[in-house]
Amino acid sequence: MKASYWNRFCPTLFGKGVVELIGEKAKELGMSKIMVVTETDLIKFKVATKVIDYLKAAGYDPVIFDRCKADAPSDICDEGAKAAVQNSVDGIVAVGGGSSLDTAKAIGIIVSMGGTSICDYYQISCKDRKLKLICISTTAGTGSENSQYAVIGDSKTGVKQVPEYSPDLAIVDPVMTYTLPKSQTASTGMDALAHCAEAITSKNWNPYVYTVGAAGIRIVMKYLPIAVREPANALAREKMAFAANLGGLVILESGCQMGHAFSQSFGGKYHVPHGLGCAWGFPGAMVYAAQYGDRESAEVVAEAMGIDFDAQTPSEALAKRMGEKAIALMKEIGIPTLKASGYTLEDALSIADVMAEDAAIANAPGEHNLDQIKAYITYTYDAYQ
Known about the structure:
This protein is an alpha/beta fold. It has 15 helices and eight strands. The chain has helices spanning 22-28, 40-44, 48-57, 74-86, 98-113, 182-201, 207-229, 234-254, 258-270, 274-292, 295-305, 315-332, 345-349, 352-357, 370-383; strands at residues 12-14, 34-37, 63-65, 91-96, 132-137, 152-153, 160-161, 169-172. It starts with 11 loop residues before the first strand and ends with a helix.
């Protein structure tokens, strides 16, 4: 076992019905004026309204900022910060998927830094935080609720940037995911799987990541198809919420790699949902890791995915089996292909230069030079048809 260091910095409150404690937890953190950061549809479909009602019952009169959109656009983040300052809030309760939670983190950065735009703070890790932050997830995928990373889409360039702002508390209540549509259940579930597997096969792996990430993979492989087939299955929803949280924990330790670099680069250019991009990027990321990375890491993922192999299995054969297993899962849960979604191989290859500069790719094994990136993208496009 190599020498390693790890730490979990964000407490997580997990369980069915725990969202009802939001008022109590906000008071424990000393919040007096709260802004709820969410999206319009979560108000419309009475998901975020549950949280708002619990806050009101606890004596709060929350400000509502429901302008969040996919990819956490920088201009929306700036609007949210302006609203926070105008209403003198000292706490944020973020409700939603990764984009809403990341928008809330960006708001926290802008206000804490005394600025007006997140564009000025893309490279920072905000330590002197002026706003307390509680993140409540409504999807089972991003793990953003207990991660300091805020993936922000620059509104002018489309490039994804990743500043940092740590939540003070993550609340993971599986009930909040019950209304998630099948397509989003599938794609966000693949994001959770990608977090666990990419963290294990990152060049920064450690034994903690092996243990926690492998547990997350086993849960996703068993329960994601059930959650897609049976959206009302409470056990499957609970298990997927837990797996997503585990995925968030392991990427804090060793980071994502090739698949997320693809998703962030492709999504930035073509405005594809993050989870869908991660699903497309996942099989190739596993093949790439098995080809260029640590054999033990690949074996940990393969075993957790239920792939047959032994010590004599060549790495190329193991890589092929990992890709095939991932593709079989994607077909089972109805992930559309890149081609069926209207994209050509040339479209995919057009992001190679941007992908080479993506922050996640630095965690990938191998040299990740332009030839390797193009080979990865070609496999990604051709293998899943």
